[in-house]
Amino acid sequence: MAPDGPVQQTLFDETNLVEISHPDYPGERLVACRNPALADKRAHKRAELLVATEASLTTISAGVTAGRLSKAGPIGIRVGKVVTRYNMAKHFILTIDDGQFTFTRDEENIQAEAAFDGIYIIRTSVPATSMDTNRVVTTYKSLAGVERDFRSIKSIDLDLRPIHHWTDKRVRSHVFICMLTDHLIWHLRQAWAPLTFTDEHRPDSVDPVAPAQRSAAAQLKASTQTTPTGEAAYSFTGLLDHLATLTRNRMHITGQDDDITFDLIATPTPIQRRAFELLGQTIPQKLK
User: Fold this and answer.
1) How many CB atoms lie within 10 A of CB 204?
2) In sequence order, what are the beta bridge partners of 100?
3) What distance in Å separates the CA atoms of residue 89 and residue 104, rounded to the nearest whole number?
4) What percent of the chain has pLDDT over 90?
């Protein structure tokens, strides 16, 4: 691929990834990937945005023709809002003047962008002796798990924000607690996989660029909403909510002679018992 030159689509005729090099990135490996599913998604989205932009521009053009818009300034403002909203300014040739507004698609620009649909490049300095090309792509895609964990910490499972710290010590402590919590959640997800929709036996993908496939067992669990043992299947968050119903209640009974105070644990459900079994723990009867 020459600088600023056309994409050599023949690189992807027999494979979805190829390792290349470029003098602008000395000492780095460049892995060019093409995801057909992503290419179709981007092409479909572009087509929708083009149609929506044209519809709005047609309305403006009708207003200009009818004389409701006559000055170039107001016309330009209206047009600018439309192409900015859909981010389609680069794909249209616009002509604006007093009492005049025309537009056409810039087909050459559209085709040039379409040539890159589904294509992305991963850069790495890890030598091939330590990580082959397929492993580079797989490792990059595994970052989705890291992003999921940060979302979990911030707003899904723990809802730790907004929290404001004003000293370095408190910032470091907060980050440490977040990472420790994330480590705990990772282990809980692994241990509770039989009770959740987690794919316990995800098949190895022959093509690391292609979307990951779920195992037949995971698909059955999702369609039936039950585990292979017949128990109700949960999302991880749903399981946490269910476990939260297992409560310890402080009971106080007033008698004629003495008052009695004791703790009473709610009767655990089968799922709650199973969750503790998977952790190798029993439900504690007393606080220590």
Assistant:
1) 8
2) 97
3) 11
4) 46
Residue 201 has pLDDT above 50, yes or no: yes
Single out the residue of 195, 280, 199, 200 nearest to residue 240, CA to CA.
195
pLDDT single digits (tens) 213-238: 888 888 989 899 998 888 899 998 89
Q: What is the pLDDT of residues 116-133, one digit of tens each?
A: 998 899 999 999 999 999
pLDDT digits (tens, 9 = 90+) for 90-111: 999 999 999 999 999 999 999 9
Q: 215-252: buried (b, 16+ CB within 10 Å) or exposed (e) per residue? A: eeebeebeeeeebeeeeebbebeebeebbeebeeeeee
**Rounded Cα distance, 113 and 194, in Å:** 45
Q: What is the pTM of this model?
A: 0.62
Question: What is the SS3 string spanning the chain?
Answer: CCCCCCCCHHHHCCCCEEEECCCCCCCCEEEEEECHHHHHHHHHHHHHHHHHHHHHHHHHHHHHHCCCCCCHHHHHHHHHHHHHHHCCHHHEEEEEECCEEEEEECHHHHHHHHCCCCEEEEEECCCCCCCCHHHHHHHHHCHHHHHHHHHHHHHHCCCCCCCCCCCHHHHHHHHHHHHHHHHHHHHHHHHCHHHECCCCCCCCCCCCCCCCCCCHHHHHHHHHCECCCCCECECHHHHHHHHCCCCEEEEEEECCCCEEEEEEECCCCHHHHHHHHHCCCCCCCCCC
The answer for 236, left when phi > 0, alpha when psi is -120 to 50, beta otherwise, is: alpha
